[in-house]
Task: structure prediction
Amino acid sequence: MKLLFMPYPSATGTWGCTVYQLAIAQEARRRGHRVLFHACPPTSRLLRENDFEVRDFEGVRGENMATTIDDIYDVFTALSLDDGDYWDQLIEWERQVIDDFRPDAIVADMRPTATVSALRAGVPLVGMASIGTDPRLQRPENRPEGHPLDDLARRTARRYLGRTVDTFPELLFWSADRKIASSFPAFEPELADVPGLTYVGYLDGFNRRGLDELPPRPERLVVAYLSTVGWNSDTMIRSLARTAELADLRIWCVTNANGSVERFDDRLTLFDYLPIDELLPECRGLLFHGGQGTSLASLYHAVPSVACPGQNYERVYNADRIESLGCGVHASVLDLRPRALSQLLARVIEDPAISAATSRASEMLRAMPGAAGAVDSIEGLRA
Result:
């Protein structure tokens, strides 16, 4: 099969979504399928590093995602993906690559125009699905007068397809022929009744950089992931140093992709990047923002966590699920003060009930089919 992958059209970097597609594409390539990505920088650079063919286009650069994010509308608005002229341009770029490549299926994630382009070309569409995009779980009470993205979705569907849609999430989520959830039923149970959906479990894109260049891993190591959170600040770094002292920990902290790598003190080291999937098996705990990819990585590797999602609806959901599964704690920003945070980290590291729960979650995730199941679902479109 010839498979066209369409990731997020964002120029601000959306690594979690890209890694999911990367994992599926690697399995598809291993089976002999031809893969082409239609992607914008910086995503396109990551894909080329993994030896994939990429057709570039110009992405949009969003605003500050550290603001309050109540639903999928806020996500696309913050990413500046609410511009009708850009949607029209993206549809034209997609038409060109589809006409040239002639795919047997399109695999899309958070691509608002993918449904339109797939239907226009008569190509089956596989969409990545999550709680964050499920129309049933948005908050219409936040938009009593409607939303410009709904108007844009209606205009686009009418103009290009002659069809009627009611809302933007309907265009983004419901119209795919197959849907792939990169999680498992115990984590996102609300997706169980979505037609055509397959849970495949954790998708690891194998974008490996190795552990060889890292210092020896200390005892009681905790990774703190601060690179995309509103609470990434000098004050937080000082709080982590004091937290490590109070809880007798060693903390390795990812600050941001362009940050420095330095030893703050004997207990805290700052990094611009850490290979999470390779490092987590050697960690005792994780402090992070509640993003889905990192949530599932912690569960897959049976690492207990403290999730501080701030005011991001999807991350709040993930933090709630981690706590409900008994695999960690949903923390507030006030919990990031040294005394409170040291107690939370000590608890998740030392509590045998949390350790047992993370082991059970890991067993469930490792029993899922992963990327192989995703490609099976795509190949099923030929039946």
